[in-house]
Amino acid sequence: MKESSTSIKALLPVLFGFFIMGFCDVVGIATSYVKADFGLSETIAGFLPSMVFLWFLLLAVPAAIFMNRIGRKKTVLVSMLVTIVGMIIPFIDYNLYTCLIAFALLGIGNTILQVSLNPLLTNVVKGNVLASSLTAGQVLKAVSSFCGPFIAAFAATVLGNWQYLFPIFALLTLISMGWLMFVHIREKSPEQSNSSWGATFGLLKDRTILLLFLGIVFVVGVDVGINTVAPKLLIERCGFDVTGAGVGSSVYFAFRTIGAFVGTFLLARVSGSKYFRVNILVAIAAMIVLFFMSGQYSILVLIALIGFTCSSIFSLIFSMAIQARPEKANEISGLMVTGIFGGAVIPPLMGYCTDLIGTQAGSLIVILCCMCYLLYCSVGIKTRK
Questions:
Q1: pTM value?
Q2: How many domains does the chain contain in total?
Q3: 119 assigned to some structural domain
Q4: Which of 7, 30, 56, 262 has its CA 20 to 30 Å from the CA of residue 162?
């Protein structure tokens, strides 16, 4: 009984870390605020999410090596400290450059957190409880993403300025950091790892791993892209102000949360590849219809449908990669996390195409192309049973 009680005390602060992990998705609505505050073009504004997601390419493998040296819990604490610093800077002095620094530090902290938090969870729970705990963590992350636009709207309307979002996030991260710091988690001494940049990226010579890695790049691009374009569609087509337009991102994340929850049960009964194929086909159909919709409710319904159908694709691609080379599971995990940098590549392309065409249809074209690649992944890649 005492051991079970200790496990629960350690589990709760670790799970709360997944809520902090979801803060990176606030970049979607924050981009709309920063664009309006500084009169940025769509092309320039498209680089703001890049400041968050670029670090997954640069730091995922080094973060894993760093974690091997200092331990998992300490690495998680470092990630939260970086996040707190990033959230304080723009509140002290708000300008375009401090916003860029804040987004960069948010991305650095989130990269380190995503690399270290899942392994830390394995030190707290085992067996079937681990699987359910991982699912609970992902749901908490999605809830955090869903709450972000509402927190921004609360800061703008009740507190008088959306920038109060930054100290709110800093305070929540500080609570999470303090909670975890004072909980004992037993860790084994880290084993010496042979992982390196060369060994990890050398896996891309395997055609299946390469195609699945690109699948991660594009599914994250779709996720960040929809999160970013949803408020802009409501502003452009429905006349919403920036604060009200945040409902677009919230609807997306709400249905992504529901989709992930439903997918947890359905994937125990149906083939993963079939589930992947059906969902991406529905998402593509919804995206095509979205090109022609101008009413706020039709736009929100389609955004919800895309969120629901795309919710499990990241984990499906991840598992396909592990099944393809199970003997390289650790290296593949690091490589797939690196693929999250797709969130840095797709938004600038969306911004460029939007400026080129003159409407948000340019952004939708880029997202649709990403979905078409994901359709290819669902039908063109065979993995081991």
A1: 0.74
A2: 1
A3: yes
A4: 56
